[in-house]
Structures are given as structure tokens and as C-alpha cells.
Design a protein that fits this description.
By secondary structure, this protein is mainly beta. It has one helix and eleven strands. The protein has one helix at residues 103-106, and strands at residues 2-6, 9-12, 17-24, 32-38, 45-50, 57-59, 67-72, 77-82, 91-98, 114-115, 119-124. Strands 2, 4, 5, 6, 9, 10 and 11 form a seven-stranded mixed β-sheet that branches. The chain is globular, with a radius of gyration of 13 Å.
Length: 125
Amino acid sequence: VQLVESGGGLVQAGGSLRLSCTASMPNFGIYSVGWFRQVPGKEREFVVAMSYRDGRTWYADPVKGRFTLSRDNARNTVFLQMDSLKPEDTALYYCALSGYYSYSDLTSRVRYKDWGQGTQVTVSS
């Protein structure tokens, strides 16, 4: 399985970016998807996830109301729309796939089996 993220870049505070993650695999629709982010010296942290079972989506508190996750199973792609970006959103963003579907599992990075290489998001103040 290969996951390829794109869409990262440099943006001013208050701006927007749209990240994409495309998977090269069959049966993409039977996997939950998540995004995590990491800054140097810190652990990779949960951002958002969508359950394959019912499409329920959970957001980390710092991004609620600003980030929106969507998926297009026909294109094997998920999108992370990030609006009202803040300098503290600066990080390397990773998408990942999981066979789990509950909140408690999908907010834990250990429940994800496949990861992309990451795309850098930098928000200037």
C-alpha cells in the first residue's frame, strides 16, 4: 500500500490549505482514514479521523471548526481542508489507514497500519 500526501506549503495565518492523500490499493472504502501531525521533538498527534463504517468523523479540539475531512472512495483519495490556519498548526502532516472504526481506536496512532510520507504545512504569523 502506498499513500501519497500533497498540498502542503507555506501560508500566512488566517489562510487556507487543502491537503490530499491518495492510496494505491483496492478496497479503499473499507478502511478508516486519519490525519496526524508532528513537530520536531514532539510525538505525532491526532488531528482528525473518519470511520469507514458510518462516516463518522472526529476532530481534535484544536482544529474543530477550522478543518474539514472528506473522502472520495472512487478516487481513493481523502481531503483535509484547513481554514483559518494558525502558526501552531505548523507541522508535518501524515495521512494513515486503519482497519478500526471506533473513536478510541482511531485517535490512537498505533491503530493505523499504513502511513504516507508526510507533507509539510508552515503557517507564518
